Amino acid sequence: MTIKELTNYLEQIAPLSYQESYDNSGLIVGNSNDEVHRALISLDCTEDVVDEAIAKGCDIIISHHPIVFKGLKRFTGSNYVERTVMKAIQNGIALYAIHTNLDNVLGGVNSKIAEKLGLESVSILSPKKGILKKLAVFVPRTHVEEVRQAIFDAGAGHVGEYDECSYNTAGYGTFRPLENANPTIGEVGAQERVEETKIEVVYPAYRERQILVAMFSAHPYEEVAYDIIALENLVSSIGAGAIGNLPEAMNPKAFLGYLKDRLNVQVIRHTHLLDKPIQRIAVCGGSGGQFLREAKQSGADVFITADYKYHEFFDAEDDLIIADIGHYESEQFTQELLLEIIQKKFANFAVLLTETETNPIKYFI
């Protein structure tokens, strides 16, 4: 299998276009056409992880966090980022990161946390907007079925749990071929009137190129009339965090013990425990403090995330409990998630979970 085959599959689940603007997900080191035979999965990519990959004969490391966030101007080994990248290149090991794009999909990082906590009726905490577009294309009646199916096959017309969704309006189009035209219908210099159908479909912006290629290939006209409109609709399956419910309510102290046990957490930093039962839970793996407002609006009793600063804890204002469980701790099960995703598709491909402890934060208890 080539790197491209593996990463194309991962990007079907978590498209690179869903990553945040500051992120650097994708192939960081390696040639996408190179073959790979064994992968090592880790939360972080460090020198020790590369050493483990070398020892275990792995030719690609798939990590959640990218080893490179900013541009590198020198490769002198002066810091751990340069040393890690240099060692990977020297030993022919590809590096691939699947970070905030995997955070931002239902079934991704936050859904895995919700699964570990046994939450029910899980949905996205903060859905994204601005990632959908609408295509309207005008097609002669003789080719409507062919063009519509082509754009469906290319990825348009998927809405929630439905596909091949479109709206079709009958009408007619007029045109007059000029001197250098080569019309499919009509003659040069004569106005033509053709019965047409306007096909409207919604599609994710990242699929635009393949949809347009399919449309042009199936459409009979020399000049295709079409409109593309950017949409601001919220997409319920794409966005940050997750919100769900415990099967049964718990008192706050019991819930913190449950949280510590289920997520294998050593320390929980939390705000004042409120005198009400805990059942509705908001989660956001990693640094998710910016979604506190959405957690409150969703009716959460607890917001579980990481990297809270001292003054930010005051923002709970006794509307809910903030529980900071640590960055590594909140995302550690991403490794398990990636293993499941890859093995489901490539049953005979060797995938290993790292045995290297990459959490840079230690606790003295």
Describe this protein's structure:
This protein is 27% helix and 29% strand. By secondary structure, the chain is α/β, with parallel strands linked by helices. It has a six-stranded mixed β-sheet. The protein has a five-stranded mixed β-sheet with strand order 1-4-3-2-15, sandwiched between helices. It has a four-stranded antiparallel β-sheet with strand order 7-8-6-9. Helix 6 packs antiparallel against helix 7. InterPro entries: DUF34/NIF3, DUF34/NIF3_bac, DUF34/NIF3_sf, N-reg_PII/ATP_PRibTrfase_C. This is GTP cyclohydrolase 1 type 2 homolog. It comes from Sphingobacterium corticis.
Secondary structure elements and their pairing?
Elements: H1 3-13, E1 26-29, E2 38-42, H2 47-56, E3 60-63, H3 80-90, E4 94-97, H4 100-103, H5 109-116, E5 120-129, E6 132-140, H6 144-153, E7 167-175, E8 192-204, H7 208-218, E9 226-231, E10 234-250, H8 252-262, E11 269-270, E12 278-287, H9 292-297, E13 302-306, E14 321-324, H10 327-331, H11 334-345, E15 350-353
Helix pairs in contact: 2-3, 6-7
